[in-house]
Amino acid sequence: MSNFIFLYFFVGIILISVGANLLVSCTEKLSVKLNISYFISSFIFIGLSTSSPEIFITILSTINNASNIAIGNALGSNIANIAFVFALSLFFVKINKNDKASILSDEIIYFLKLLVLYIIILIPILWNGKIEFYESLVLITVLLSFIFLNKKYLKKKEKENINKDNIYILLLILTGGLALLLFGTELFLTSSRKFASHIGISDYIIGLSITAIGSSLPELAASIESIRKRNIDFIIGNILGSNIFNIGIVIGLIGLIETFLNTSSLELLARKDVIRDIIMVSLTTLALILVAKNYNSYFVKSMSIILLASFIIYQMNLYGFNI
Questions:
Q1: Backbone angles phi and psi of 162, in degrees to 5
Q2: DSSP 3-state assignment of 267?
Q3: HSE-up of 292 (CA within 13 Å, CB side)?
Q4: For the segment 247-287, what is each residue's pLDDT rounded down to a tens digit?
Q5: pLDDT at 299
Q6: How far apart are CA 216 and CA 213, in angstroms?
Q7: I want to staple 207 with a disulfide (CB 3.0 to 4.6 A). Which of 23, 53, 73, 185 is the partner?
Q8: Cα–Cα nearest to 183, from 45, 15, 5, 51
Q9: Tell me, which fold does domain 42-156+201-318 have in CATH?
């Protein structure tokens, strides 16, 4: 297996890139066909699709009594999505003088409130070091309630005749792009985890670092495609949707699976680790809000550098390198 680690790594990167290209292109066309905003279409189709690796990792790790990988993966992915993926996207995005000074639409503001609410809820949920059954129900119920109460954002702007055959073709291509994305991510994670196993680090740190970065590659690939199309709504929708699904669905599944299969993580999360990671999730979310509110070239480029630097320092801290 060790002879193929680098081959798996590079093949995974290629498949992720191709899959993301198909995913973003189809989402853009679907938003036009269904007459919904770019933000909502990216929030649903891209955000949920790029969270699929985290969902699969959660199911597999929880079944194998390693739910700490799932928790670390969800929190680490949320941090990586903003401090790495979003920050890198901001560094290359071009902002014209006639662009809007703020990109905070009603839709973005609403789902930002949901993300902030989730972060607040996570503090008491993770305080005892594990996810209980009723806590999973709370996370999933909050997500479904928010979507139901504001289904007006999911409606078409106006009625029109839609060529359903074309939509079915787009959905088929989107599914193919998702399959390539997931398979490429699995190859990347397989090679990364194989390498990490020789280092002897904990499940939670693996989830926060290697697994989180690897499962954030779909978001990065989708964001790169969005940059090429100069569509900031796609980038925001992708990141915001993925982070919300990571908490509502990914972490939400843990307590349900453990209760149903009568499994449990072999060790509880350390409270100091939980506090550190909740703070990091909160600060990166705040940065996302500030960028959306102050969308000018100088502020955006400065914030991208700050986020990338903080992400590097955070990852070094996970492995015991203090600055």
A1: -115, 135
A2: coil
A3: 26
A4: 999 899 988 988 888 877 656 788 888 899 999 999 999 99
A5: 87
A6: 5
A7: 73
A8: 15
A9: A middle domain of Talin 1 (1.20.1420)
Instruction: Look up residue 179 and give its amino acid.
Output: A
- DSSP per position, 128-173: TSS--HHHHHHHHHHHHHHHHHTGGGGS-SS-----HHHHHHHHHH
Two tokens, residue 27: 């989402």
54 near 213, Cβ under 8 Å? no
Phi, psi of 197 (to 5 degrees): -65, -25
| 3-state secondary structure (DSSP) of residue 13 | helix
Query: Which phi and psi (to 5°) does residue 36 adopt?
Result: -120, 165
In Å, what is the CA distance from 274 to each residue of 128, 244, 252? 10, 18, 17
Phi and psi, residue 26, nearest 5°: -70, -40
Query: Are the CB atoms for 65 and 203 separated by under 8 Å?
Result: no
HSE value, Cβ hemisphere, 13 Å, CA-based, for 313: 10
Nearest to 250 by CA among 50, 55, 29: 55
pLDDT of residue 26: 76
